[in-house]
Amino acid sequence: MISSFNVYFLSERANKHAFKHNNLRKNKMNSSMTNNKKENSLAKNIIRVLTANFWVAVIGFIGSFIFPRILTIDAYALYQTFTLYLGYIAIVHLGFPSGMVINYAGKDYDTIDRKQYRSEILLLLGILSFFTLVFFVIATITNNAMLMYIALAIIPTGIIGSYKSLLQAWSRFKAFSRMSTFLATTVPLIALSYFLVTNTLSGNVYILIYLGVYWIITIAILVEVYKKIHGVRANKLLSEVNFKTERIGLALMLGNYINTLFVSSDKQFIKWFFGNLEFAYYSFGMSMQSLMTVVIVSIAQPLFPAMAQGKLKDEEYDSIKEILLIFGSLSGCAYFIVSIIVKLFIQKYTNSLDVVGIYFVIFPAMAVINCLYINLYKIKGMMKTYIKTLAGILTLAIALNTIFVFFVKEFTGVAIATTITYYVWLLIGFKQFEFLHFTIKDLIYIIIYMIGFFIITKNVNDYIGIIVYASFVAILSIMCYKNELLLYVDKLFHR
Fold first, then answer.
1. Which of 33-47, 49-63, 285-299 has the lowest mean pLDDT?
2. Distance (Å, rounded) from C-alpha 235 to C-alpha 241?
3. Three-state SS for 172?
4. Residue 252 neighbours by CB distance under 10 Å
């Protein structure tokens, strides 16, 4: 017989169990809701940046065809030379902006330490101003116009680049998207307006328009920053905190700079060993590739703070890798659009299509590298590995470029060398990140994709080719990654 005490005890135990069960259920529901919010937030950020960068790519796409048409070959080569050297000046930042981004990744903008932020901004401005003065003096002494342009670009590119990265770190993607869109549209629109009024446009004028727009935006950013730091006293500039930021950033900067050298090495080889004509052809081809890179990087930007906050588990990266391979493959559709426009409107750049065709094969590898590898190097604290890897990749790129330049003696060979190098990096990354798995299925997908791309682009009419190619990639992706696609779509959009 059960006593009244035992009944009471069992009743209380049951109640406690029910209470505990309900709490666990509530916690699970809350956790699920939180995860859903995180996933929705990530999806929203990706879509927001993709939308903005889509318009950036569209404007850039249009501009990339208009300006080669209205500019002379030499004028276009001059502007491309400016953009080439512009990529090298990131070294004068001494890595401090990169260190700031790492420190602020995943943090709330509204709660940052304003005193420390003011200290960092003042130190950054001091570094940029110092090197501006150095370059200005050298340019004046040597009477080098290009060096003067670079001197005038140090502060605006440094401030704008740093601020955009910080917006990304703070997950302020709405502001990031607005700035990206404004930057991409303003320069070409002003340049085009200038051409319509004057019926002429030189490379020098285009560069001056670029500098003018960037300086105006820089002033606007500094005004916005001033509103944030106004009324607080800056922490000591030469503090241990800032030295730590510099040490972190210096390692990252070194890696990024080697990456810049790697990305621009092929273009630099063309500049050194070929004439303005080949340089213009090659630069045009690269500009097409760069436009698609903008779209690919749109995914990397929202992923970084999500990865830094630990929102993504190791096992989720394989699914992301596969989606990126598919996305990179689909990017090849743009080749046919480029081909159609070049053949119709700017026949003088028809020779660039060989470069475009080779470069577009890079996209699957580039998508994985830019969106996953580079972010993982940062958040996993693998900066030494990052630098060593890039040093090896750069060495390989230089070696292959040298071989193709001196033995093949065709500027398209440099594009082939770059493509090989990217896929070598793709394979190396799978060894470095053990939770990323390079399967036989991935290998088959890449090989069939490459073969299919070259067969279709070389043998099918451009107008029909885009439909055939898109269908080919869709069928190949479903055959290889059907389950992953369904799972990803469900997680990203269904909720």
1. 33-47
2. 10
3. coil
4. 21
Task: Sort residue 199 into left (φ over 0), alpha (ψ -120 to 50) or beta.
Answer: left
Q: In 3D, which of 354, 346, 453, 361 has the Cα closest to residue 410? A: 354
Against a cut of 0.70, is the pTM above it? Answer: no
Q: Residue 45 pLDDT > 70, yes or no?
A: no
Closest to 314 measured CA to CA, from 428, 426, 433: 433
| DSSP-derived secondary structure letter, 274 | S
Query: Which of 186, 211, 177 minimizes the C-alpha distance to 59?
Result: 186
Amino acid identity at 463? Y
Identify the pLDDT of residue 49: 60
* Predicted pLDDT at 448: 94
> Can you say whether the dihedral through the CA atoms of 455, 363, 83, 265 is positive or negative?
negative
- Concatenating the DSSP letter of every residue in 328-386 gives HHHGGGHHHHHHHHHHHH-GGGGGGHHHHHHHGGGHHHHHHIIIIIHHHHHHTT-HHHH
CA distance 446 to 325: 8
- The residue with tokens 């993709």 is 50
Question: Which phi and psi (to 5°) does residue 264 adopt?
Answer: -95, -5
Q: Is 144 helix (H, G, I), strand (E, B) or coil?
A: coil
Q: What is the DSSP letter of 491?
A: I
Q: Which amino acid is at 332?
A: G
Rounded CA-CA distance 114/170 in Å is: 14
Which pair of structure tokens corresponds to residue 178? 């607005």
